[in-house]
Structures are given as C-alpha cells and as structure tokens.
Design brief:
Elements (H helix, E strand, L loop, with lengths): L3 E4 L2 E9 L6 E6 L2 E5 L8 H14 L6 E5 L5 E7 L7 H5 L1
Parallel strand pairs: 2-4
Antiparallel strand pairs: 1-2, 2-6, 3-4, 5-6
Length: 95
Amino acid sequence: MSFYRVDGDALILDVKVQPGAKADALAGVVDGVLRIKLKAPAIEGRANEALRTFLAERLRTSKTRVEIVRGEAGRLKQVRVSGARVSPETLYSQG
C-alpha cells in the first residue's frame, strides 16, 4: 500500500509525525504511512507548521499549497499537496 494517492492535480499523503525529535528527517514508510520526525514540539501548531514547511521543501512547492486535511491534533495526518514539482517517490531516497 502506497503512502500517497493522486487526486486531480494534488497529492494526498498519509503521514505519521513524531514531534520533538533531534532533527527533521524522513523515517521511511511503514504500513502505507510516511513517517516524519520533526524538531518542532507538538504545541501551538508548531509541529503542523514544521510539517507543511518540510513537505513543501522536499516536494518543491509553496508552503501555502500544503494543507493538513485530517488529523491536525494527532500524529496521524492526511496532507494535501498541490503543485508538487517532484514525484513523491523521491521521498523514499531522501529518508
């Protein structure tokens, strides 16, 4: 099972976030979910903002085009990314 699907011109990603990590990093794909470690703490939306920035940089799109559509308050999230300039498979080689 893939961690993403295509919805029109956007990607829908299934992501599990580990906030408060030592460094921002991709931790691989487990059970169809992309695991991401973030330095930002899980308070006041900081981890969500860090996730949007992290994915925007790696998929070469604007942070405003990365939207958390489900799971803002939890670790499991569904994220919609519009205008990605690289394939999501490139995340595998970066993790």
